[in-house]
Specification:
Blueprint: H1 2-21, E1 34-52, E2 55-76, E3 81-92, E4 96-100, E5 105-110, E6 113-125, E7 131-149, E8 155-176, E9 179-189, E10 206-214
Length: about 220
């Protein structure tokens, strides 16, 4: 966890430094156009499942996530609309535990990484066109190493892969040349198909703050 906090601090210092040292020129009305690189921190909905005797035993929490996202976006229609695509790579505080009530076994789930890609679309507001409000959808992947021990002392190990949709709304604003800050709020949609699950995934909110460097 200490390493994760140091990585967060280093990332934000780096983006701030890039923003401070960028070349000064004429102000452009396109603050959300072209290649970009972002870093975000916040709380995300983390969940995993262990398959035990025909039941997908779910555990869930809101966990801390540090995420990096390179991408490309384009302003269109007099620069008042935006469409974009991005990749995402994140480090998670993804440890989960729960108990199987049928056997009183404690089940542990470990995850520390996520990845994915997504699309975004929004509108550019303000006379200076320096505020962006957009919606996003991101297909996200997480994997868990799972372990639980029977009463006999035999320990089981499993791997669980989660692929789900993150969606939401963000507001982004330029704070200095090429550097933007944003608030991101969203939820998740997951479909377990025909699996019988121990509970529904609660639609807890993802809440993240981000800095974006627009090249």
């Amino acid at each position: 966890m200490l390493i994760l906090k140091k990585a967060i601090l280093t990332s934000f210092v780096l983006l701030s430094y890039i923003g401070n040292t960028s070349a000064q020129g004429e102000n452009s009305s396109k603050y959300f156009d072209g290649l970009y690189f972002g870093v975000s921190i916040g709380s995300q909905n983390i969940f995993g499942g262990a398959y035990i005797d025909d039941l997908d035993l779910l555990a869930q929490k809101n966990g801390f996530v540090l995420e990096f996202y390179p991408g490309f976006r384009k302003q269109i229609f007099d620069d008042r609309m935006m469409i974009g695509f991005e990749l995402q790579f994140g480090f998670t505080d993804g440890g989960l535990t729960t108990n199987d009530p049928r056997y009183e076994w404690e089940v542990s789930y470990e995850n520390n990484f996520q990845s994915g890609y997504g699309l975004s679309a929004g509108v550019v507001l303000g006379a200076k066109k320096n505020t962006l409000v957009y919606t996003y959808g991101k297909l996200t992947n997480r994997s868990f190493n799972i372990s639980f021990t029977e009463d006999t002392g035999f320990t089981h190990h499993q791997e669980d892969g989660q692929r789900f949709l993150r969606y939401g709304l963000s507001i982004e604003r330029q704070i200095r040349e090429k550097l933007n800050v944003s608030l991101i709020i969203g939820g998740v949609y997951v479909d377990f198909g025909n699996l019988v699950t121990s509970q529904e995934v609660n639609d807890a909110l993802d809440v993240n703050l981000a800095l974006t460097y627009q090249f």
